[in-house]
């Protein structure tokens, strides 16, 4: 009897406690600590909560980042070159030219650094997302961590629409099919829409085209035209559906990466204009750059690279072929400027231009040496199908009329790469040299830059564009977390002080470089650098031995030292005269390398065999231009 009584008391107590609990707390646990509503058992006891939608600051400017591909410092007319770029000229003449701006030296690392505001090894893109250029180390696995949020992710969190148009080149090879995963496609990295190609290069008339997360069929027109049309269509739709919402457009044409292809009417505009050759081109552009004030008046032009032949010693047929190569390139480049101009014109017609920040980087690295010594009509990397130089010239002569057109996979020879890189030494992928890493930057922002137009000589790097954009828009900082992932701090520095004040000091004071066994460290105007050899340029033209000086082939770095404040294009090596400064910088490189995942140093000799094998087994075969059945 006593046990029954105790059991009844326990039951009654439990029911009372349970009922009191229902009356004193919400019907369920709060689903989110940030939820500010009340969840009761009934609707009458509850209070709804709707968070305010994310909005950009009132009047926030639109943002356009434009990154061109494989353009040298001295190619465009806006920086003294002989290729007409009227759109770029207009943007610069009403904005700013930055003359001391830098990239990483090659495409995918530059894009990773630009989009994340972090160094390329820190963003895990020390080389490329291709199987032959990856390694199982943090700096080289080609998988950008979610903790390194992109500009698109940051700006979308702040109320911007985000669009990517053009070349991506940040998705590991095995993730590029329509099966995904799509985490490292543009839409997985913060973009609302994407139209372009995922790889490093594509045919301009038969591109490997993707829209959002699906491969699509190109329409047969030139890729630049399709990209401009798609960009304008995105902006038109934005104006109709959300006119008060600002946009971020990341515009990255495949131009002027090989293949150099364009309609013949553009090539014909330059017929005969480069007959005097690359030596004449360098001297002419060098003089133009002094007139524009973008290089010092007492500057000296570096000697012709040892791997480039003297123009006057070429045969008449070699001159004819080589002039045609640059006619094709120039037509391709000017057409790129024209298509970008269509987007700028749309902004002006719709009264959006004045409130749009345009940051235009003319090249993700220096001009490309991948056409090797004599250029190519059927392969990105030179060599053609010849087994000796005489055969190669004969093959190029046979295909003369196809150079630069859709019927050939054209890449110009190294002589034009050096010319396009005037006033610097070396070229693309040479991370130790300004010719590989210094690229023009144009800043246009009519509402923000009024009386401050002109030239800026402050040091800058691609990792600086994200913090610069955030300061110019008033956003100022990245979110603490994006999609639940805590964000690492940015490594770039805002260039806004230089934009508003020509006399502002450089805020970016230290920067390392490293690619393919070639590296450098910059600090406060000084630069120490080293390079291994043989050079990448020799990979596909082994028969051409007479232009191959052996430099540092033992595999041990030999450091050079330059004072860029007094010697901006690296003519006077001060390593022997100032060993203490060199020692200081070498130690700084080691420190930066450890902090940024640069070690182990992966050299070109470590990957070249895998590269050759990969190209033979996996690279899509381009049609041979002298085989009409495939054209």
From TrEMBL:
SUPFAM superfamilies: Alkaline phosphatase-like. Keywords: Calcium, Hydrolase, Metal-binding, Signal. GO terms for molecular function: hydrolase activity; metal ion binding. InterPro entries: Alkaline_phosphatase_core_sf, Sulfatase, Sulfatase_CS, Sulfatase_N. The keyword Signal applies. It comes from the Bacteria. Residues 1-27 form the signal peptide. Residues 61-475 form the Sulfatase N-terminal domain. Belongs to the sulfatase family. This is Sulfatase. It comes from Flavobacterium hydrophilum.
